[in-house]
Amino acid sequence: MEVLIIRGGKPLNGEVRVGGAKNASLPIIAASLLAPGSSSIEDVPHLNDIDTMCGVLSSLGAKVSRSPNAVAVDASDISSVEPPYELVRAMRASFLVMGPLLARTGRARISLPGGCAIGSRPIDLHLKGLAALGAEIDMGYGQIEARAARLTGARVYLDFPSVGATENIMMAAVLASGMTLVENAAEEPEVVDLANFLNSMGARVRGAGTNILRIDGVTELEPACHMVIPDRIEAGTLMVAAAMTRGSLVIDNVVDEHLKPITAKLREAGVSVEERDDGSIYVEMRQRPAGIDIKTMPYPGFPTDLQAQFMALTSISSGSSVITETVFENRFMHVSELARMGASIKIDGRAAMIEGQPGLSGAQVRCTDLRAGAALVLAGLVASGETVVSDVYHVDRGYERLEEKLARAGADIRRVTESEVEKAV
Ligand code: EPZ
Question: Would you say the CB of residue 126 lies under 6 angstroms from ligand 1?
Fold first, then answer.
């Protein structure tokens, strides 16, 4: 097991580049199952979750080849409709093959994706949509089996604008006969990127990015090439890192529109954010941030995937802040670890009250989930003394060598194996 050792107090300066979006890459790789032939997907981040999704596709008979930041999938021959339990168990997003498998082969048999640290993560809305399209769904022994000779277009209302459910239903509907209307659909940029990939395969998806999707089914799709959008959550994480360390950072490869709530909240905290016309954003901060209130919401609201990182920011603010998590029921696992570094945070149901402190102190902390881990790294960048972050595999699920990007911008951070820790500290 590896750990990150961070000596805090170094401002970040210089330039970093954001990679392709993990949460766009995963559904797009799954969507390549919809067409026989070879699709290629570029600017895919090199992450454990991408490895898992590629493993799922290989287990179904697709031929997957990888280069550092690209994935090619030849889905000519689908020899199985049942990905192995251990892969589905490893990553909830594996469930995104349900829609494409059903559309392409008429069958899919997938283990129920378990919950995870941030919540129970049900899939009722995915199943509601697939059933509306005519799939017969049986559940038992921890498995879900879906069958449909051919799916038929339908009207689907999502009780919650679920990103995954919107994506699974969209990928099933593109080969259904007739028109599908998805109401209260998720509007996230990653949903739009998936729709763009599907349309480049010959699908007819309209309204992506709004809360009403219209999909006119076609009889077949062609493989396609696609460049994934930049990862807005990685970009936001790097923006917070620059703000917390009172540095000045140019962050390349961003889409300003996708960062609106993050830019707005950083400006409220007193951070200078300059959107440049060359696809980069410049972040500068010279004083303690002001306290700010945040409420996570589905896009275009403030993203839940940046809640933990902003909690690290507000823990060193000059005032008090309230952060309300409305998307997941248990996404405050980072609070107790931040408190061990001196943060003053009280939780009351879905709300966390943060009293900003003049500083944090280094400690041994443990990642509990992907974004909580990122928040602990950010806290370590400003804490006095040394912070040792363990269970770093959580961070590696969503960030490609985060410590290398931060070190290149001036942070004192390095990755060592746990056995080397005694020598290193
Ligand atoms: C996607 O997860 C992202 N993952 C998550 O990012 C992100 O936090 C989330 O969307 C919200 O933006 C990927 O895209 C791979 P949801 P997803 O379905 O699709 C409830 C990260 O850190 N719900 O929009 O699983 C659910 O319980 C990860 O990169 C149902 O009730 O999220 C949750 O409370 C973490 N029934 C809420 O909706 C359903 O059938 C949001 O879930 C589906 C979801």
Answer: yes
Residue 425 pLDDT greater than 60, yes or no = no
| DSSP three-state, residue 214 | strand
Angle at 32 between CA 27 and CA 34, to 5 degrees: 105
How much is the mean pLDDT over the chain?
Answer: 96
Nearest to 79 by CA among 132, 36, 43: 36
Helix, strand or coil, per DSSP, at residue 182: strand
Catalytic residue among 54, 116, 225, 367: 116
Give the Å distances, CA to CA, from 202 to 174, 195, 196, 218, 224.
Answer: 9, 11, 10, 8, 9
3-state secondary structure of 382: helix
Distances (CA, A) of 113 to 46, 87, 173, 224, 393: 23, 10, 22, 29, 19
Residue 13 CB coordination number (10 Å) = 14
Helices (H) and strands (E) in the chain, counts: 15, 23
161 Cα nearest atom in ligand 1: 24
Task: Please tell me the distance from the alpha carbon of residue 346 to that of residue 335, in angstroms, as a whole number.
Answer: 9
pLDDT value, residue 112: 87
How far does the centroid of ligand 1 lie from the alpha carbon of residue 155, in Å? 22
Q: What's the token pair of residue 352?
A: 């966390």
Give the integer Cα–Cα distance in Å for 127 and 124: 5
pLDDT at 129 over 60: yes
For residues 297 and 91, give the distance between their C-alpha atoms in angstroms, rounded to a whole number.
23
Residue 115 CB–ligand 1 contact under 6 Å: no
Helix (H) or strand (E) holding 366: strand 364-366
- pTM score: 0.97
Beta pairing class for 13-17 and 351-355: unpaired
Q: What percent of the chain has pLDDT over 70?
A: 97
pLDDT at 114: 64
Evaluate: CB of 121 within 6 angstroms of ligand 1: yes
Task: Decide if pLDDT at 105 tops 60.
Answer: yes
Of the candidates 146, 150, 182, 181, which has an alpha carbon nearest to the alpha carbon of residue 163? 182
